[in-house]
UniProtKB/TrEMBL annotation:
Cofactor: pyridoxal 5'-phosphate
Gene source species: Sulfurisphaera javensis
Keywords from the UniProt entry: Aminotransferase, Lyase, Pyridoxal phosphate, Transferase
InterPro entries: Cys/Met-Metab_PyrdxlP-dep_enz, PyrdxlP-dep_Trfase, PyrdxlP-dep_Trfase_major, PyrdxlP-dep_Trfase_small
Listed GO CC annotations: cytoplasm
Signal peptide (UniProt feature, chain positions): none
Gene3D superfamilies for the chain: Aspartate Aminotransferase, domain 1, Type I PLP-dependent aspartate aminotransferase-like (Major domain)
Pfam families found in the cross-reference section: Cys_Met_Meta_PP (PF01053)
Single Gene Ontology MF annotation: pyridoxal phosphate binding
GO BP terms in the entry: methionine biosynthetic process; transsulfuration
Protein name per Swiss-Prot or TrEMBL: Aminotransferase class I/II-fold pyridoxal phosphate-dependent enzyme
């Protein structure tokens, strides 16, 4: 659903004017009585609970309008199907979530959309070479955690008349506000850090009223609409997002530094490390370096999978962004849809693990990793 921010007036969650409830009610209804409910009509189109969530993401991203979707991929598909058409030219980078990458390279290309792919760290330079209708980036890439210089890229996009769409799931509105830095649209898998408890699937988008109105109409047509109860859970997650991210940022930095010195670790990928290729960019565009730490162990795929099974506090699971730490194996989980050749180009090895750091005591997490690594 949509939420508007007009001028300097920002909508926030207050209390329900009809009942006095201090939390947003869950409007679990399909339709509304005419003429009283004419504003909403049908919950696939507009629902009061979901509407409030749209207002919240618009407020946090300092955008004119926010839209909520049934999932992160729902946000991506609805947005791209709105802003592209046969003959459109789109630029993406290769190091992104596997399902997103396949949506561009398989599905959009099948519609006659031209999709160019930049290698890791090269999208800013590639955007200068040719005029694109849309440039799509993950602000922090999955799983290599490359950091895109959004202010610089936005300047190039504005000069070329390109729409810059950012997926800021890994950075969150706490660590980065892409709209403020010049992006046209920001998207989130709200299932991750924003909701924060691994109990809801949802997507969010924010941007100008002009663009988001069009995207919202596509959402209504595609049916990528969010359930009101799920919207309520995401709104609840927003209330603790700043507190959680402060702890997660701190924990992840300490764990990255620990892993970097571990004798059984070959490489650590984390924007907060001076060894990271985008460290200087990260310091400039991010307020915090995020909760994901990716690392390569010295060993085989079986060794990496063995480490996952030996962990006791950290859970092996294909998700991220929750209060509890989780770990996954990109080659066989999040990026399994990529061919071995594609994974090699991106830099995803069979011995790579992606750790999503939670809010547990950091010493417990380090001890858990240390014991699991000692098994290989």
């Amino acid at each position: 659903m949509l939420g508007l921010r007009e001028g300097t007036k920002v909508t926030i969650e207050g209390f329900d004017e009809e009942t006095g409830a201090i939390t947003t009610p869950i409007y679990q209804t399909t339709s509304y009585v005419y003429p009283l409910g004419e504003k909403y009509r049908y919950s696939r189109e507009v629902n009061p609970t979901v509407l409030k969530l749209g207002e919240k993401i618009a407020e946090l991203e300092e955008a004119e309008m926010g839209v909520a979707f049934s999932s992160g991929m729902g946000a991506i598909s609805s947005t791209l199907l709105t802003l592209t058409r046969p003959g459109s030219k789109v630029l993406i980078h290769r190091d992104m979530f596997g399902r997103t990458y396949k949506f561009f390279t398989d599905f959009l290309r099948s519609l006659g959309i031209e999709v160019d792919v930049a290698n890791p760290g090269e999208i800013v330079e590639k955007a200068k070479v040719k005029k694109y209708d849309v440039v799509y980036v993950e602000t922090i890439s999955n799983p290599l955690l490359r950091v895109v210089d959004i202010p610089e890229l936005s300047k190039i996009c504005k000069e070329n008349g390109s729409i810059l769409i950012t997926d800021a799931t890994f950075s969150t509105p706490i660590n980065q506000k892409p709209i403020v830095q010049g992006a046209d649209v920001v998207l989130h898998s709200a299932s991750k850090f924003i909701a924060g408890h691994n109990d809801v699937i949802a997507g969010l988008g924010a941007g100008s009223k002009e663009l988001m109105t069009k995207i919202d109409l596509m959402r209504r047509t595609l049916g990528t609409s969010l359930d009101p109860h799920a919207a309520y859970l995401v709104i609840r997650g927003f209330k603790t997002l700043k507190i959680r991210m402060d702890v997660i940022n701190s924990n992840a930095q300490k764990i990255a530094e620990y892993l970097q010195e571990h004798q059984k670790i070959k490489a650590v990928y984390y924007p907060g490390l001076k060894s990271h290729p985008d460290y200087e960019i990260a310091k400039r565009v991010l307020k915090g370096f995020g909760g994901v730490v990716t690392f390569d162990i010295k060993g085989s795929m079986n060794d990496a999978l063995n480490v996952m099974t030996k962990l006791k506090v950290i859970l092996p699971a294909q998700t991220l962004g929750g209060v509890n730490s989780t770990i996954s194996h990109p080659a066989t989980m999040t990026h399994r849809t990529l061919t071995p050749e594609e994974r090699k180009i991106v830099g995803i090895s069979d011995s790579m693990l992606r750790l999503s750091v939670g809010i547990e005591d950091v010493n417990d997490l380090i001890e858990d990793l240390d014991k699991a690594l000692s098994s290989i």
